[in-house]
Design a protein that fits this description.
The protein is of the alpha/beta class. It contains 14 helices and 19 strands.
């Protein structure tokens, strides 16, 4: 039985703590904040409640496995899961509108053909088929196993392009896939959105990112009643049930190590001995699992964008014909990419945005509704997100863009009781994420430039978990990160 200290009660830290305690280790979890969840936060005011981080779940099997392995219960026994139907409604750059079914590739292809003309569905479906090949080729080494010490196998992009002649140059980026294989700016906009939601430039992100739309449209998107915070609460309760020693308001100043002296650590190696708390207390430990971003992650992508979120408390009940998720795609792709990734970061007045209007009576006082608008924006530091004038002006612009673009959103301004804007500065202050950036998923290709740092630290007994470590950001991958770390630590 090892003495283990977990630093950080984000989803990865809590999931790792629950798994390690279940197999017999003594686990202390230290969280600097007064609450749990990390980026899976919430905001409450006057009876309205909003998620401030992830809002939808893909691959719920990851958390089904967590609940089964740590308590022999089903995830559905802990939270109410509902498939989002339709999976998404899209307003394309030319104003065309279409609804894409949840977890049905055939229905997605049919909808694209109907809305965009003959061949559109087939081109999208062909691309998703090649995304499926990426998923099958990289699923184990990229998601389910520790990152190899020499991950050359993941440095090459496994995306195999559409056959278009023996001398055709294979696409290297997601944007290449759009130009050469989709050949329609409206389809390209659908593909770009998967990169933009994680703050990635489609002109640089490898073609392998096509496995993300394949994954979502094949396996579906799910909503947790009460918001994603309910999932964080369920994982916390599992930690309590496994007798994890939870210590909130307990920041860790540093990880303590001693130099190795024999073959176990290797010449000049270091072994973890515990942690030093901010109040000067030392906690002894055989193993430390760190849910904070490893230093390598900041160097990997120092200018990742963050998210601007506008929380809307609305007077009156939610109309019955309103979709759960609507995506409005920027009418000017070049303007949006230049604002996010150009030499001088700026704000796009008509960006790609997501409008969420969940059919969930638990989120608002009886007879009222919540809605959330989310936009990818430059991080805090490249722009000053503490400037109240900038925040207010951009909130006006984003709301006006939604109202003008989505017929069902025309009533948002008229029904507005109050609004609350959250910026990358808020994310940075609450989670410590540099600039308030959102960790992207690990991706193969580009010589390993898009791989998150590995879970095992060079210092013996130290492991990294969470969105900034292998296999990267997103609720499902964070849960997978905890599974990998628990396997590396092993049983007593």
């Amino acid at each position: 039985m090892a003495r283990i200290v977990v630093i950080g009660a984000g989803m990865g830290g809590m999931a790792a703590a629950a798994r390690l305690a279940t197999v017999g280790h003594t686990v202390v979890l230290c969280e600097a904040a007064p609450t749990h969840g990390g980026m899976v936060g919430s905001f409450e005011r006057e009876g309205f409640r909003f998620d401030t981080g992830p809002t939808l779940l893909t691959l719920p099997a990851v958390y089904r496995d967590l609940m089964l392995k740590t308590g022999r219960t089903r995830l559905e026994d802990e939270v109410e899961l509902r498939p989002v139907d339709p999976g998404s409604v899209h307003v394309l750059p030319d104003g065309a509108r279409l609804a894409l079914a949840n977890a049905s590739l055939a229905k997605v292809e049919s909808a694209l053909t109907t809305a965009l003309g003959d061949g559109a569905g087939a081109r999208w479906g062909g691309m998703l088929g090649r995304g499926r090949a990426v998923w099958e080729a990289t699923r184990r080494p990229l998601l389910e196993e520790p990152l190899p010490d020499h991950p050359a196998v993941l440095h090459r992009d496994p995306y195999v392009p559409e056959r278009r002649g023996l001398l055709a140059r294979p696409p290297r980026t997601l944007a290449d896939v759009g130009r050469r294989e989709l050949r329609d700016p409206r389809l390209t906009a659908l593909l770009d959105e998967y990169a933009l939601r994680f703050g990635l430039d489609p002109e640089r992100a490898p073609a392998a990112l096509t496995w993300l739309p394949y994954l979502e449209q094949s396996f579906g998107v799910w909503y947790v009643t009460g918001g994603m915070r309910a999932l964080a609460d369920a994982v916390l309760e599992r930690c309590r049930a496994r007798r994890v020693d939870l210590r909130f308001g307990t920041p860790v100043r540093k990880v303590l190590v001693e130099k190795g002296t024999n073959g176990a650590d290797g010449a000049g190696g270091q072994r973890v001995t515990g942690v030093l708390l901010a109040d000067g207390t030392e906690l002894d430990a055989d193993v430390v699992v760190d849910n904070r971003p490893p230093q390598a992650s900041a160097a990997r992508n120092p200018r990742l964008p963050g998210r601007f979120t506008l929380l809307l408390a609305l007077r009156g009940a939610r109309p019955t014909d309103v979709p759960h998720r609507t995506v409005v795609h920027a009418p000017d792709r070049a303007d949006e990419l230049d604002a996010l990734f150009g030499p001088v970061p700026s704000l796009c007045d008509r960006p790609t945005l997501q409008l969420l209007r969940p059919d969930d009576a638990t989120l608002a006082p009886e007879g009222h509704e919540t809605a959330t608008l989310t936009v990818t924006v430059p991080p805090h530091g490249t722009l000053d997100w503490t400037d109240p004038q900038r925040v207010s002006a951009y909130a006006d612009a984003v709301l006006a863009h939604a109202v003008a673009s989505v017929p069902e959103a025309a009533d948002l301004a008229d029904r507005l009781l109050w609004r609350h804007a959250r910026t990358p500065a808020d994310t940075a202050a609450e989670t410590g994420a540099p600039g308030g950036s959102v960790p992207p998923p690990s991706l193969p290709g580009a010589g390993g430039a898009f791989l998150a740092p590995g879970n095992a630290d060079p210092r013996t007994g130290l492991f990294h978990v969470g969105g900034a470590a292998h296999p990267g950001g997103g609720l499902a991958r964070v849960g997978m990160s905890a599974t990998v770390v628990a396997g590396l630590v092993g049983t007593p």
